[in-house]
């Protein structure tokens, strides 16, 4: 009876503690620990919106840190076109767009930013649509009027990035082991790298040539692959093909005519000083010798070359009159090889005269 009474008191204490703390919902069957470990709905909403491809975003530098940001008006239009995303918020799905954004700001999932450069550059009619450098805005309140918002949480790493992080050390080790590869593998790697380098240089040359011709003839700035040389760009933005809209004013005729004359003079100068067949053959032979040296080099050849140089060092030491045991010889007693050859020739001549 005493044991049953004590157990009943413990149950009463536990139930009263749960009621006082209010940590468990009476209408929910989820245990308290699982409810505590459950992620915030606004966190899930932020991750869902960030991973969605229809929300246009860019990368910029915020206080020496690369951040991904979007514009306030794009966020409004995104939630207007995709209202199903709000279902993640459960009971808060009926909130307005401004209230949702302010909730994300209060939970430090977003931070409002402003452009660093607020003045027009020479030759431009308006400020950049996507600035490359940002600073924190004093008032952390949502707005869709030229306002920028950066994500503050780390984005989930996809599987290919994880595999690539393990692949880089293997690639580094493979590059270090290039001298011991078979000859065919060396040829394959060499011509593959040369082909990729030639492709990149050709792409840059054709891109610049198209830009120059369109700029001189039409006065428009058209850059195909506009982000190919960008320092801060994602992989998707890096290989974007279509050019950006030209927001600068049209160049003057005098400038276009001047650069057209300069381009013609440069082409004529390069054609006049082009190398002849003999010079091209010498250059090709020189490059072939360099490539052959790279392909034929191996640690075995390097070690054999070091072994061949060791007798030369020993001969040089003996010629100086010092041996490895520290003993020295009289320089007068050392007979050079040429002297021995001359002495031998004299003895042979004397013997020949005696025979006669």
Descriptive tags:
356 residues, 12 helices, 55% helix
Structural description of this entry:
The protein has a five-stranded mixed barrel. It is flat, with a radius of gyration of 39 Å. The longest helix is centred in the middle third of the chain and has 36 residues. With 356 residues, it is α+β, with helices and mostly antiparallel strands. It is built from twelve helices and five strands. The N terminus is likely disordered. The relative contact order is 0.06. Strand 1 and strand 2 form a beta hairpin. This is Translocation protein SEC62. It comes from Citrus sinensis.
Helical amount: 40-55%
Radius of gyration: 39 Å
> How does the helix and strand content classify structurally?
alpha+beta
Question: Secondary-structure element order, as H and E?
Answer: HHHEEHHEEEHHHHHHH
Poorly predicted segments: 1-38, 337-344
Give the count of helical stretches.
12
Number of strands: 5
Largest sheet: 5 strands, mixed, barrel
Overall average pLDDT: 76
Termini distance? 145 Å
Can you tell me the overall shape?
flat
| Beta-strand content | 5-15%
The spatial strand order of the largest sheet comes to 1-2-5-3-4
């Amino acid at each position: 009876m005493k044991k049953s009474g004590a157990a009943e008191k413990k149950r009463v204490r536990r139930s009263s503690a749960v009621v006082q703390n209010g940590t468990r919902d009476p209408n929910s069957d989820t245990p308290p620990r699982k409810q505590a470990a459950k992620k915030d709905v606004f966190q899930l909403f932020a991750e869902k919106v960030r991973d969605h491809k229809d929300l246009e975003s860019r990368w910029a530098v915020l206080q020496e840190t690369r951040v991904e940001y979007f514009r306030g008006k794009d966020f409004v239009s995104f939630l207007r076109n995709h209202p199903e995303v709000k279902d993640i918020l459960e009971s808060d799905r009926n909130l307005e767009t401004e209230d949702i954004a302010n909730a994300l700001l209060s939970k430090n999932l977003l931070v409002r930013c402003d452009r660093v450069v607020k003045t027009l550059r020479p030759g431009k009619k308006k400020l950049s649509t996507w600035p490359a450098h940002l600073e924190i805005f004093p008032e952390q309140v949502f707005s869709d009027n030229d306002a920028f918002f950066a994500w503050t949480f780390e984005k989930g790493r996809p599987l290919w990035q994880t595999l690539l992080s393990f692949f880089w050390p293997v690639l580094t080790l493979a590059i270090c082991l290039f001298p011991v590869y078979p000859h065919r593998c060396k040829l394959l790697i060499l011509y593959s790298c040369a082909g990729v380098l030639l492709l990149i240089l050709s792409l840059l040359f054709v891109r610049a040539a198209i830009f120059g011709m369109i700029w001189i003839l039409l006065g428009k700035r058209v850059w195909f692959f506009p982000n190919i040389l960008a320092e801060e760009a994602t992989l998707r933005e890096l290989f974007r093909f279509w050019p950006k809209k030209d927001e600068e004013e049209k160049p003057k005729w005098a400038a276009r005519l001047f650069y057209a004359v300069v381009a013609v003079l440069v082409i004529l100068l390069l054609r006049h000083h082009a190398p002849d067949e003999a010079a091209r053959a010498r250059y090709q032979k020189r490059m072939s010798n360099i490539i052959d040296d790279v392909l034929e080099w191996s640690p075995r050849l390097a070690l054999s070359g070091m072994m061949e140089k060791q007798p030369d060092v020993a001969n040089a030491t003996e010629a100086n009159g010092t041996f490895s045991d520290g003993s020295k010889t009289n320089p007068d007693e050392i007979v050079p090889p040429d002297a021995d050859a001359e002495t031998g020739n004299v003895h042979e001549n004397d013997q020949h005269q005696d025979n006669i």
